[in-house]
Amino acid sequence: MTNVEVSKKKESDLPILLLNASRICNPVTEVLKKKEMDPKFKAVSSEFRRFLIGFLYVYGPLFESDIRGNVKINSSALAYHLKILVEAGFLRNEFVGREGKKFSKYHITEEGVKFLDFLGAKKELERLTHKTAR
Question: What is the pLDDT of residue 78?
């Protein structure tokens, strides 16, 4: 609904508060703005992060360095994306001893698997890798 259409209606008929000529705000918009702050929303808003969830479902668990070896991305950018996915609950980070040092190993969580199932991607990924249901 455009501002022009809104102005043609009676004010009492509208559950809309006009803030200015270019912006309309209503209760639905306010709820959705709050949802934008949700870590899960932020996590799945990036195509690369959605890819990482699927990648770890198929090939994981993997160390961060192993992920980086298969994906062209610098270390700090990958760490940023992985952190967002961990905070949202789609991945979990485990510190594992390797070569005498502790390294981050990432696993997909049940929440991550549910997300892939919601997208309809889980079955396709299982067919690609001949995985049995997790």
Answer: 96
